[in-house]
Design goal:
A seven-stranded mixed β-sheet has the order 2-1-5-4-3-6-7, with helices on both faces. β6 and β7 form a beta hairpin. By secondary structure, the protein is α/β, with parallel strands linked by helices. About 9% of the residues have low confidence.
């Protein structure tokens, strides 16, 4: 009986640790190329480097995503309440023109990039993307303080942003 209990505890511990909060991006995700609004390639590492020294909110979204569109008013409210934070949007749209139209239609303010291979592509896999919208919060040193937040987590996101500013 003790062996069974011990095995159960070890299994639960291993599973809990596997879902632990990432503190930094993998080398794989940093090397991934995204597309700028000017249709130029840039590595995710270069993008993050440009935001170092600033608290940064990364939103992974798509213009076709109903939950993403529903969350836009909350994103805009967050931006209004946290004007010293950088906002970085990574789109999972299927086409460049759809992505561009989505930015314009929803009047999203921030830096925009496009992952050309969508949610299930290499970039999405490298950041463990399983749902959009997805929010990742970085501190001023570029360390991840929230790795996995979704549209129902705005209270947690806003609380964290207040601590970081």
């Amino acid at each position: 009986m003790k062996k069974i209990a011990l095995c159960l505890i070890v299994t639960i511990s291993v599973l809990a640790c596997s879902k632990a909060q990432n503190k930094e991006f993998s080398k794989e995700s940093l090397s991934k190329k995204l597309i700028t609004t000017e249709n130029k390639e840039i590595s995710f590492k270069e993008i993050l480097k440009a935001h170092k020294g600033k608290v940064t909110v990364i939103e992974v979204w798509a213009s076709w995503c109903g939950d993403c569109v529903k969350a836009i008013p909350k994103v805009k409210e967050m931006q209004a309440n946290n004007p010293n934070v950088d906002y970085l949007f990574v789109s999972m749209d299927k086409a460049f023109d759809k992505w561009q139209a989505g930015i314009e239609k929803h009047e999203l303010k921030g830096n925009h990039y496009w992952a050309t291979d969508g949610m299930k592509g290499e970039f999405g896999k490298s950041i463990d993307l399983d749902w959009i919208p997805r929010y990742i919060i970085l501190d001023k040193k570029g360390k991840i303080v929230i790795y996995r937040a979704i549209e129902t987590d705005f209270d947690k996101i806003n609380e964290q942003l207040k601590k970081l500013e």
